[in-house]
Design goal:
Elements: H1 3-21, H2 32-49, H3 64-71, H4 81-90, H5 98-116, H6 120-133, H7 138-150, H8 154-167, H9 172-184, H10 188-201, H11 206-221, H12 256-260, H13 263-273, H14 276-291, H15 305-332, H16 334-348
Helix pairs in contact: 1-2, 5-6, 6-7, 7-8, 7-9, 8-9, 9-10, 10-11, 14-15, 15-16
Length: 367
């Protein structure tokens, strides 16, 4: 931008603000607080740009108000979908007349047709106009939420669903659409709650049931926090540094990674490892594992029998510790052992395919 043009624009802005303080152009009707704010704005502009009303050489033939008034003459005011509707909802809305309701319904039907033709921006405009005619119809907000979601305006879609529920608290489709928006934002916990509520209101809806299953599955796949204390879990989620075992399932073997991402399973395992007796037994167990880390070292030329005997003794101690560990787990936490057994049986079956559709189902706008 040319510095002279900017200076003249700022001069015109200061001139306009000064006229507002004096109750001139357009009539200001400013409150005392508003007058103070405008005065501060004038001072800020003068300081920032080094421009003041004493610089008459910067004046233009028309005031900023006149320039803007002529430039915008005949140009329709665009309604901001969120802001305009919010203002209407905050003020006490009046019931639409029969004529207004009929016009609103025609606009909604036009919006539905545009949505089917993938003209989402135009559909959004139709739904907004319908709301301006009848702001107490929850369907219009819910349909506009669908248009927002198609345009990837997920936050606006959530807000419209909330407005629909303010009007009609038992509106299942609003909960369903809000769940879709949260899912698109990867907020699967919120999506799950929305789908659950939608399913409570409409128990036979397979779309809500399917989307709820998808949300629950995605929650299970989220990384779980790992504790690193003695009674907790190290890297990979296994106790005492055995995290590398998570990759030992192999093709057709138990899916240890899925086991570690199972919140209920890991919670029981955490409780198990907080038992002092179990901690002592695991310390002994790991001591035996450490002794089997490699072949025994013997002096050059010495017979190998003692090393072999030591190795066999260590293996026997390891097996004994392992049996004791398994027995204590079975006696104190049978449900944990059963879950591990089921997980290993599933892994042995070699089935790793995802039978669930990964895409949430989005129903069409409501007629």
């Amino acid at each position: 931008m040319e510095k002279e043009v900017v200076s003249r624009l700022v001069y015109s802005m200061i001139q306009f603000l000064q006229s507002q303080l004096e109750g001139g152009t357009g009539g200001s009707n400013l409150s005392e607080e508003g007058i103070e704010s405008v005065e501060v704005a004038v001072q800020c502009l003068e300081t920032a740009y080094g421009v003041s009303l004493s610089q008459n050489d910067l004046a233009v033939s028309k005031s900023l108000y006149q320039i803007f008034n002529e430039a915008t003459k005949g140009e329709p005011v665009r309604e901001n979908a969120t802001r305009i509707t919010s203002v209407k909802m905050e003020s006490a809305p009046k019931e639409a007349t029969p004529e207004e309701k009929e016009e609103a319904e025609q606009l909604k039907n036009e919006g539905n047709k545009l949505m089917r033709d993938e003209k989402c921006t135009e559909a959004l405009d139709c739904y907004t106009k319908a709301i301006s005619k009848d702001c107490l119809n929850a369907v219009y907000y819910c349909n506009r939420a669908a248009a927002h979601s198609k345009l990837n305006n997920q936050r606006e879609a959530i807000e419209d669903c909330k407005r629909a529920l303010e009007i009609e608290p038992q509106y299942s489709k609003a909960y369903g659409r809000m769940g879709l928006a949260y899912s698109s934002l990867n907020d699967h916990h919120q999506a799950k709650e929305c789908y659950k509520k939608a399913l409570e209101l409409e128990p036979d809806n397979d779309s809500y049931r399917g989307n709820l299953s998808i949300a629950e599955e995605k929650i299970l796949r989220e990384p779980q926090p790992r504790a690193n204390s003695l009674g907790g879990f190290g890297p990979g989620g296994l106790p005492f540094g055995l995290g590398n075992l998570a990759g030992l399932g192999g093709p057709g073997g138990p899916d240890l990674a899925s086991m570690l991402n199972n919140p209920a399973l890991m919670n029981m395992a955490t409780q198990l490892m907080s038992d002092p007796n179990m901690q002592n037994m695991m310390s002994s167990f790991m001591g035996n594992v450490g002794g089997l880390g490699g072949p025994a070292t013997v002096p050059t030329g010495a017979p190998s029998a003692p090393a072999e005997a030591a190795s066999n003794g260590g293996m026997e101690a390891l097996l004994t510790a392992g049996r004791q560990l398994a027995e204590q787990m079975q006696s104190q936490h049978p449900e944990l052992v059963e879950q591990i057994r089921q997980q290993m049986n599933r892994g042995a079956g070699g089935s790793t395919g995802d039978s669930q559709n990964s895409n949430d189902q989005d129903p069409p706008p409501q007629s």
